[in-house]
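Page 47, continued from p. 46.
Same chain as before, 70 aa.
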Amino acid sequence: MIVCVCQNVSDRAIRAAVDAGASTLAEIRAQLNVGNCCGKCNAFAKTLVRAHIEDKAIKAVEVRREIVAA
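Result:
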């Protein structure tokens, strides 16, 4: 889905930037130019960044548990 209409930035692009190492909205903004025009997408973009980082952390813990259990 498109998160930033002004710059045509999708949720996939934001998740990919987080996967590549971005961890703050400022870093996402610098990479993708999201939220630099009207700013209406900033709150959702920030929520998306946080949620994806949390999801990655949860998955990492699950993988560690599987490795320990094996």
